[in-house]
Amino acid sequence: MKIKDAKVLVCSPARNFVTLKILTDEGIYGLGDATLNGRELAVASYLSDHIVPCLIGRDPFQTEDIWQYLYRGAYWRRGPVTMSAISAVDMALWDIKGKALKTPVYNLLGGKSRTGVMVYGHANGADIGQTVDEVGKYISQGYLAVRAQSGVPGLKSTYGVGRGQMFYEPAEKGLPPENVWSSEKYLMHVPKLFEALRVKFGDDVHLLHDAHHRLTPIQAARLGKELEPYHLFWLEDAVPAELQEGFRIVRQHTTTPLALGEIFDSVWDANILISEQLIDYLRMTVVHGGGITNLKKVAAFADMYHVQTGCHGATDLSPVTMAAALHFDISIPNFGIQEYMRHTKETDDVFPHSYYFEKGYLHPGDKPGLGVDYDEKLAKKFPYERAYLPVNRKLDGTMWNW
Length: 402
What we know:
- Helix 2 (63-72) packs antiparallel against helix 3 (80-100).
- The chain folds into two domains: 3-104, Enolase-like, N-terminal domain (Enolase-like, domain 1, 2-Layer Sandwich); 108-368, TIM Barrel.
- The longest helix has 21 residues, at 80-100.
- Helices cover 35% and strands 18% of the residues.
- The mean pLDDT is 96.
- The protein has helices at 40-55, 63-72, 80-100, 105-108, 128-140, 183-201, 217-227, 247-253, 271-275, 291-303, 319-331, 345-350, 376-379, and strands spanning 3-11, 17-24, 29-33, 117-125, 145-150, 172-173, 178-181, 206-210, 234-236, 258-260, 281-282, 308-309, 338-339, 356-358, 361-363, 387-388, 391-394, 399-400.
- Strands 4, 5, 8, 9, 10, 11, 12, 13, 14 and 15 form a ten-stranded mixed beta sheet that branches. It has a three-stranded antiparallel beta sheet with strand order 1-2-3. It has a three-stranded mixed beta sheet with strand order 7-17-18, with no helix packed on it.
- It has 402 residues and is of the alpha/beta class.
- Helix 7 links the parallel strand 8 and strand 9.
């Protein structure tokens, strides 16, 4: 079997996606996701202009060699554009391998380590009362874990609080909108939210929260300490991690579990965090972390230091990545939890898939390969539309982390 062609497909069924379709001379094709939110066309060009010509004639079963060729052979390594492109190739090759062998990909990764993949949904509201209500709705749908975000008094908009429910999408058409931020107001508000949630729902439901890189290490330490009575499953992305050592301060002051890494694209982004046990959950995703081949290695490294996985799973990745993540999740020994933001009907129609939700868990299904397809004819009805994530400024106008 040889690779005979590959196509880069860009569409926007409610949001932009970049999909790689690799075709073989035996009629089997595989799909990979290359979506990089707000920089989609950069990855599409990288694939079309620089990677696809290098794939023609290669054996699609050589996933390791092709991964090393694309990573080491490019010389300019790493970065979100390069790693998203490599991830798409890797996913597509595993999809081909599973289809050719007539088995789900998880069977090629060691088989199932669990019966299902526990997921968490996103509950949000303009205030604490609305968020409490939304958490209740998720619990009534069978979710065992819920991420809770609430509007902050005095701030016009807050990360995690969307325009609608279930399909929260922060990217905006046109140029980036500007949000206003106050860490001080946020820090006073968040403990009140989780106090209300525990009073209402008790201790059984897993509660999570995302600070979205807004805090300094000492602020994150304070928040983690104040949240300890409400025993969160995790506090996510409390501090930007360009300086991994900064998490030593957070770790010294709180026992609230820490999760980090949805914007990581290499194990080197998390080397100190893992080896010094400064985090509990690594959030690297299949689409930005080099695909299944690389993420398996990262997970094995993390396992040595008691760090579990908690892969990013927002709507800025397509059902192709969600399927790949589920095959990865169900196979590794140190899986923790999977983020699950439901896609819109338009997205699900373009990407029909076999994975399904049941009683708090996602299941990858038993179709050969990844178990997801792409409706090219329907996708053409949803052309690309430029969209950006917001940017963030403090109350005094200082540019800050969104």
